[in-house]
Amino acid sequence: MSEDYEITRFLTSKNNNKKPKIDNYNTLKEYNNELYTGMKIGGKHYWNYDNGKWIEIKKSPNKWNFTFNSIKTRNHLAPINTGANVHTKYHWYIIAEQFAEKINANSYMTTMKGEKFKIGHKRLYWRTFNYRYPDQKPYKERLIEILEGILYNLKSG
Q1: Which of 4, 62, 114, 131: disulfide with 139, CB 3.0–4.6 Å?
Q2: Taking the domains of the chain in order of start, what are their residue ranges?
């Protein structure tokens, strides 16, 4: 079922107060008056990054730029007929704390904890990411919204 059809069906149904049946990844869902598809709120993934490569460059006394590349794999197999289609792409913004403890001359025990925010996605049959289409919130606007929300929560909590 196409996403456009699912949205149209949801918005034009006789009983708009009735929530759509949540039975799979692509079913239209609602959270805090926002429509979305994908994993239900509260769902969890467990990923392995066995082949990860972290490259960092010191830019100032307390600032580093980094790049991390890896093929992440599920800790458990995905349920059949769930999840995004192969070759779907996602663009995330991650803000995190990293804790590292040196355990020998060449190794650190590292823990990273934070939040990731979906900035956009690109389905297989789209030319580009959703934030580049005219009817979508642009990348920069979405990123500013995320950062302002983080600052607001930090200052008020």
Answers
A1: 131
A2: 45-156
